[in-house]
Amino acid sequence: MSNQLPIADGLFTWPSENPALLGSRCQDCGVAAFPPAESCMACSGQNVTPEELPRRGTLWTWTIQQFMPKSPYHSGETPESFRPYGVGYLELPGGVRVEGRLTESDPDKLQIGMEMDVVFAPWRTEENGDEIISFFFQPAAVG
Ligand SMILES: [Zn+2]
Question: Please, are residues 88 and 137 in contact by the beta-carbon 8 Å criterion?
Fold first, then answer.
C-alpha cells in the first residue's frame, strides 16, 4: 500500500477530495500571496489569513523546459528519461501568480491568456512506492 504525500506542507489542502492551492491574503490591503506568507509583501502588514485559491486561472507566461533542472527541482529523472515539459505562471482571480509545471508540453497548444485549471497529480515516485503529489496547470476543457 503506497501513500500519496504532498510535495511540501502548506502549499495545498491534502489529503482532500477537492484539493486547492493555499495562499494568504492581507486583510488590510487585499493582496494575496502564494505560497502563504506570514506578512504582506505589499504593505508589510501582519494581518494576513490563509485562504484556498481559485482552481482556474489564465496563463500569464510560459516556456518549455528543454533541459533537466538542477537539484532540488529534479523529480527523479535521468538524462535518459527526461522529457521537455511546460512551465509557467498562472494568474488567478485576485491577482496572485503561481509558478508551476504544465501538463502540456506542446507549444502549439499553449498560449498566453488561455484558461487553465489547477490539478493535482503524482510528481514522482519514491523508492518505497510512495507517490509525491504536486500541482500542475492543465488547459481547461473547452466548452
Ligand atoms: Zn497588505
Answer: yes
